[in-house]
Amino acid sequence: MNVSRWLLGAALICGTAMAAGPAELYVRGGFNGWGIDNPLVAQGSGVYQADILLSPGYHPFKVGSRDWSAEWVIDPAASVNVAAGTAYRMDTHPGPEDYLFVKQTATWRFTVDASDPAAPKLSVTRLETPAATASTDPHAGAQAASELRFRTWDGKQEAARFSTDDAAATLRSYTQSTTMQLRDTGPQFVRYRESADLPRVRSGNLAFDALFALAGSEMRQDSVHEIRDGNYNGGAAIPCECFETGEKWHYVWTRDLSYAADLGLAMLDPQRVRNSLLFKLSGWRSGISKPARAAGTDDGLQIVQDTGSGGSWPVSTDRIAWAYAAEDVLRTLPPAECATFAATALKALSNTVENDRIAAFDAATGLYTGEESFLDWRDQSYAAWIPNHLSWMASSKALSTNVGHYKALTLAAQLARESGDAARASRYEGWAKALKLAINKQLWLEDEGMYSSLTAGHFDGAPMHKFDWLGQALAIDTGIADAARAHSILAHYPHGPMGAPVIWPQQQGMPVYHNRAIWPFVTAYGLRAAARTGNVSVADAAYDTLVRGAALNLSNMENLEWLSGQPLLLDEAHPTLIGPVISSRRQLWSVGAYLGMVIEDVFGVTPAATGIELKPFVTARLRREAFAGSNDAVLENLRLRGKRITVHLHLPAATEADGYYRIGGVKLNGAAANTAIAWPALKDDNRIDIELSTLAKGEQSIRRVNANPYEESPAVFGPREPAITTLERAGARVVLGFDGGPAINVYRDGKRVASGVSGSQWTDNHAGPASCYAVEATYPNGNRSHHSMPRCLDKGIEVAVTDPRVRSNVALAQSSERFPLPHLGGWGKPDDRFGVDAVSVAQPGRYAVQVRYHNGANQINLGISGGVKWLAVKDQRGRVVAQGVVQLPHAPIAKQDTPTALSTPLYARLKPGSYRLALSDFFNMGYLQSNSSFSAAGGVEGPSNRFDIYGVRLQRLP
């Protein structure tokens, strides 16, 4: 698009009104889910305004069109903190978001002055608003009321009140209010009503009953007839009887949906979950046949990896989280609908796992590569250098993602066996068994009593002392962790006063989002793991977290700051550390988490393939606090496979002791029954009585930590990662220089070879001829940093594209100020070819073969246009000695002299001789039909698997 012409068109077309079409602009930010709720309205003379009511916070925003085809920021190279009343010259290129700090809820006017189309300006001013009048008591006239009080991190108290007009009504209406300042603007209370087609609770505790009804009400709010996202379908609605992701997220995202369904939604609306799962499947887009070397059926039906880091799959491979939800849907759909979905699920899972095996499986470790599941904001949970070098993230291995691959393989094997395909079932069962062994061998850290959440990337590969609650919990939930390891994990993972953070330790210099945060859905997986392992203390902490979060926030929020439990921790002294950066009400997986907590963990109802299992986990603390007013708790109107089920929990007398209550007996419709009830045993209407009896002590171990939420204390933070500054040979020795600071651990070729090194230098007397090194910093309490970028002794063999041995159908591009080095511009169409002849190797050994490139198709955190190609190494006789997928993720673009990047490596064991390298096509997510309406590269204009090639490198490794 000609930007100057676009600007002139905007000024001319929109001089009197903001007309529909390419000239529409919106203020899009965290406060509106990056949506289009706040259009810039023409005021005349090229001036446009949007008045937006903002709550306190540090708000990221951009000015963009409906489909993001136009994007305006102040500086495309860096974020700008906007000062009120200051006019900023805008750049019409994509770039990082700008920020506005707001102390108190107020209306802010965003003004874009495009009277000079070549130099638009942005200014933001606070509008004076009249003082709010005193509001009436929302509970006035209520028949029954209840209150929950919670201590705050700074020694104060907050309260949530609940009331109903008719406590005896079959379907109650509730009013809920809070004393806590809400994150988003609006009243300090909410009203909702129980639904006739959803379960309800009668526990003798109005607050407990109400919070379950709140989750059900929010589930209904997330149940939509159409979905939308500004990056798809031109921002227009897409018909879908689906679950949207939350108040600020109106699309279906694979991982959000899948975890939400697994935690609770698949029990309550399996058809809508199925519809949503089907929406996240796609075959090859129109006009594209099955790419060479891709696996699976010709139509290519597979799970969609959503937009994200480096251009999506296979930098990220957690699309396989889809399997968690699919398994639950297969358990809860009526049998008549189950077979059809099972056939589709098998096909999609098979195509997905086969292609992931090609593109993302590392045979040397037995693990799959790819970003941590759900932790998809790489700055928050990876080393600070990683966002500029995403090939290292792409080659790392993550616990949560590998557990997801295990789930996908086991489900695919089950479906294949049920379909009569014994050979395919055996294949996937073998892969799953080997993967389970590899996770336990490669990622278990005996000294920590937990699994490492991720390994370092290539040329290092060591499991790092970094931990995440989702990965640990999923390892327990899937049975990858045996009983001893499950007990150890629950005893060792840290809990703050408000609950467990999603990562440990926290990262310095990062705002609250994944870092320094509680996410309710992750807490719910921790609760599930605790209940199944019998850890009372961890379960009680999780119950507290989920109840407190929903009660004080009037909604099941996306996330909360972990040490204070606040929906927004303001820090005017450090505005860049404020957060959570964004948090949506009625976030789908938080809603699923709360519903599942009550149905599955408290009342113990878990659907299985053959029936329902009854495993309530009522702790003594839950009994004496949540159910103090009654000896019975009832779950009414639960509908599973068309059967109506009412569960009566009969509670023993409360006690001050700690533990959980064993099941003393079960009755189904008045007759004695087992804790596993087969589907055929259920009538149309059923009553299940569960008698809880003696108190079992269970496990009481829990690790407690605490710190001031405004301080980056070593008690809860890890050090910043150091860097290797020098690497030099000194005779037979190698001398490493590195940043000073905390004690340093040194890794050689992925193994720790020195610990607690002080100073800024270390000498290796046992270096190999091609060793690679990395370092990490460590605090005295054991909290460690990420690893540094590796440095290797071998300098490598470099071949630039100007070398006469290079063969390509793409001509050299013209150099420019931004791209001064010679390169093949925009290489990567399906028929493009690139090869290098006569690459001479003098020393035998293991080599890493990489492509030197730059991929500027999209920003590093967005898109579907990561480069994914097939690289082959052939010897003098033309025999292939190594081949496989290499990844060329999005890379940063500088204003001048954009740096090159190196692809993920292809490993080859080479003898002395001459070799030929050949690069050809594979596929990325842009090849799928579901992305044909995507607004950026790889979407509406066709797949983008293109980048600039600068050369190749062969580096000798140990």
Automatic annotation (TrEMBL):
Protein's UniProt keywords contain Membrane: no
SUPFAM superfamilies: E set domains, Six-hairpin glycosidases
Residues in the signal sequence: 1-19
UniProt keyword annotations, A-Z: Signal
Domain of life of the source: Bacteria
Protein name listed in UniProt: Esterase
